[in-house]
Write a structure and sequence with these properties.
Aminopeptidase; 29% helix; Nonspecific Lipid-transfer Protein, Chain A
């Protein structure tokens, strides 16, 4: 009989055999050991038929920042099924089971990088961030960037990198709250990259960059900074390589002002949807979300969630509490599904955009009230899993 079970270390050979087949990669002994060490922090759900693994799904318990507040998040990754078991809706069953269990744990969000957006939209997921890539001919990056601080290359500590990262990512919605293991296992994994950190006169870290110079390209893996002054210092450092590189490649966020600053901003800028998310425990999410609401105001919203039907209800949002009920608290209310609500509150879509596509319903007065109580930051996720 088919069954969904939690897998353990003894199942790692089966788990990674399926991963290597599904995602077409080969693991050396060293890489296999690293994968096993990473998997120690995962909850791995397996779908077994006659005690044999037919499909699996990994959940990584994580935390993210929204409006500079910490939210619990389950990161869904490595969803795979052996081809001889395709068509049995194994991925669907694993998603439903894992999300139901994480809702019981009052987990607020789930993230994933989709292989097919339409598939995951059926389960309440929606895009919450884009990936924006720049390819800049080095001569177009010329600008009188000011150098501030001292560049350090050796002896860089994860603690210093994380200090800058947390100050940087707090300006956006949706970024991960990283721990030391995440830095070691997911960020600082490429032995070919270079790292620099920029410190101020008090020896306090203010910016960092992880990069490599290869084939006349300056490729930025990741950079973070505490303010515009130290972003300029990063650009100043990049231009020190002017004679040895042809172009600079980097990923960035929606608020990047480089195109506005440069004299010639006509360089390649590519944007595509990146990560999807959905709210898992809506009551817990609402209780933690910083609605900007006055004492004499309330909003009444009906949320529809076809997967986690316990979330489907009316929610009265007041200055002091969130009241869940089966019936509306007022004559007028707003209606929205769980995926679009996630995109809205994460800052990926606006009420105006959702209304245009008929993805949110409500009269103009109620929608205007909702617009005044949310002021989300731009979403940005540097990580991948």
């Amino acid at each position: 009989m088919p069954e969904i079970v939690k897998l353990s270390q003894k199942d790692y050979p089966e788990i990674f055999k399926l991963s290597q087949y599904a995602f077409q990669y080969h693991l050396s002994k060293e890489a296999y050991d690293k994968k096993c060490a990473e998997a120690m922090r995962h909850d791995i759900y397996g779908y077994k038929i006659n005690h044999q693994l037919a499909g699996k799904l990994h959940i990584i318990p994580l935390k993210v920042l929204i409006e500079n507040k910490i939210f619990t998040m389950s990161g869904i990754s490595s969803v795979a099924t052996w081809p001889e078991h395709s068509g049995q809706k194994i991925a669907e069953k694993l998603i439903k089971k894992s999300l139901a269990e994480y809702k019981e744990k009052q987990t607020m969000l789930a993230y994933l990088h989709p292989f097919n957006a339409g598939f995951y939209r059926r389960y309440g997921f929606e895009f919450i961030t884009d990936k924006i890539d720049y390819i800049i001919p080095v001569e177009k990056l010329k600008y009188p960037w000011k150098k501030t601080g001292t560049v350090q290359r050796d002896g860089i500590q994860i603690e210093d990198l994380n200090r800058v990262y947390e100050m940087f990512i707090s300006n956006f919605n949706g970024g991960l709250k990283r721990d030391e293991k995440w830095w070691e296992q997911r960020v600082l994994t490429d032995n070919q990259v270079e790292k620099i950190i920029i410190k101020d006169e008090a020896n306090t870290p203010q910016a960092y960059m992880i990069y490599k110079v290869k084939n006349n390209r300056f490729e930025i893996t990741e950079m973070a900074y505490t303010n515009q002054t130290y972003l300029e210092s990063i650009y100043h450092f990049i231009l020190k390589h002017y004679s040895t590189i042809n172009e600079v490649r980097m990923s960035t966020h929606e608020d990047n002002t480089l195109s506005y600053i440069l004299d010639d901003p006509m360089f390649t800028q590519e944007k595509q949807p990146y990560f999807m998310a959905r709210i898992v425990d809506l009551q817990a999410f609402f209780n933690n979300y910083p609605f900007h609401i006055k004492n004499d105001t309330f909003i009444n919203v009906r949320i529809n969630d076809e997967l986690l039907i316990e979330n489907t209800a009316f929610y009265k949002i007041t200055a002091t509490k969130i009241i869940k009920s089966k019936k509306s608290h007022s004559k007028n209310h707003i209606e929205i599904n769980i995926g679009d609500l996630t995109a809205l509150l994460m800052g990926y879509k606006t009420i105006k955009e959702l209304k245009f596509f008929n993805r949110i319903q409500g009269d103009d007065i109620e929608l205007s009230k909702l617009n005044t109580i949310i002021n989300p930051q731009t979403p940005y996720l540097l990580d991948y899993f």
